[in-house]
Amino acid sequence: MARTQQLSAQVIGRVGALAVALGIGVAIAQHPGVAVADDTAAASTPASNPRTADRDADPQSRPKRHQARTQSDRADVPLRPRARLTRTAADDAPSRPATPDASPAVWALAGAARRELGIDAAGSTSPLGTEQQLEAEQVAAETVQTLPVKVMKRVLRKAWLRTAEREYDGGVDAENLARLDKAVDEYAMGAAFQQQLLDPMRPTVVAQVAPPHTWYGNEVPGSRILYDNPDTIYRFTAVNKTSTYVLSGRFTGDMPADTTFSVLTGLSGTTAAVLSARDLQIDDDGRFTITLSGDPAAPGERNHLQLTADSTLVAVRNTLSDWNSQPPMELSVDRVSGPRDSLFAQLGGFAIPVIGPTVSSSRLLTTLVSVIPPMKNPPRILRGTLTAVVMALGLSREATYIKVATTDPQTGERVTPNVLRDPSRNAEFLATQLQSAGYFDIADDQALVVTVDPGNAGYFTVPVTDLWTITGDYRNEQTSLNNAQARPNADGTYTLVISPTDPGVENWVSTGGLNRGTLSLRFQDLDPASPDSPTVRAVLVPLEKLPDVLPAGTPAFTAAERAAQLARRQTGYDVRFAPFPQ
After folding, report:
1. Where along the chain is composition biased (Basic and acidic residues) (predicted)?
2. pTM value?
3. What gap in Å lies between CA 15 and CA 40, rounded to an integer?
């Protein structure tokens, strides 16, 4: 009890001091004699563990953008033991879903398919499994157990249910109602990750928007939200224009279908700038570095992103079309200059609308907020409170993204189910892609036949999501297909069959047992020199009439072939969380 009171007193004291410093700073900054500074005093901060003590330096001069970090620079970085995630109760931490049963003969063929691929996930190590990632997963798992998060989950559940009943024709069926609690749990887990990304002075690369997974002996809950793409590895790091950062990465194996680095602004995550891998300067061994700062790119400089006063995050999307040959890239971040870490930064002050950009644009205000140091070990209740604030955005965001599937963007009218429009740009998604969204209502004896002409897109995918806009068990069920996984038609188009029941064709996209759900087709790696835009056509048919609408000569797909197809899928998926299982 005494320890809790002491922590509370420290928090109150520091927040009070911060408020006083801000008040004085705002009053002075409003005086016309105070100029806006471009940068603040330098500091060097490597990608860090959020629980370690702050170790900021404050050199006199700002290093050049491409200045290499010496061995002595790294000598002060404290070594951290590998994090261990505290297991939660079985009903709170989802385990790895079971693989559907099949005959011994079928799985013998599947094993042969795995050997033919020559890929052994257990013999490799995923670049996603960094010490910072494991620590972030532990902190997030602890944070979602706090009272503020539990209260906000109840609020979200009621709000989402009301929204879905209003937006979907026919409301919410039993299968999707049974998934609501899990969807809210994953949104909370995602917010618990985002809470750790509020401090741009202690940047670290965190992978999230991921399914439940097991690695290093830990069961990690999912954090999927808002039409997550099974092909995409999502990683984020906090940034602010008062600092300079260097992202370092390396591509191994085949190049991903698409990789983008997006600068996001504010709490809403609006995209302000995008750098694509096709525009990157990459070394022969696959390595690259990207600088981020408030300065514009130098003449001829390609690997640079300019930050503005309201920049808060960099979202990195690594889209893998061939899961078996395109591993996730390596990625890390270093802050090479900027102000000292502070309580203001730790509490997400730079992400607060108006306040954050105002402080970022003023050298005086930035200096004042830097006077109050951060807490070395923030109380769990504080993390939970900040996470609940982030979760509150879900009250409106979920409604916005549901309307992407149910509403015509041109007319604002409700659209009927089983209709897909030609791809277009949507402000809610990646700025460099096109998407075609809709929702489906398919009986067990029906199929939605989707014909895609990829046009000038080097990549497209057709993933199934539920009414809460998240994917299901896409490791063990073929609930998505992209153009590298599907078989094309003779004319270069693709015909995919979406159904709860296996129709016996190769290009089956399972609904994962759902009769009702959402779709968000994505088109990326667009050729700007080609006017050939992608098109999408969908038709609902009874399964018995399926041969009438499929391309002539479409062969039957046997149970053994399906098992081999799933085995290849599982092997490719396991590379993400290798070694898997352990």
Report:
1. 52-61
2. 0.80
3. 22
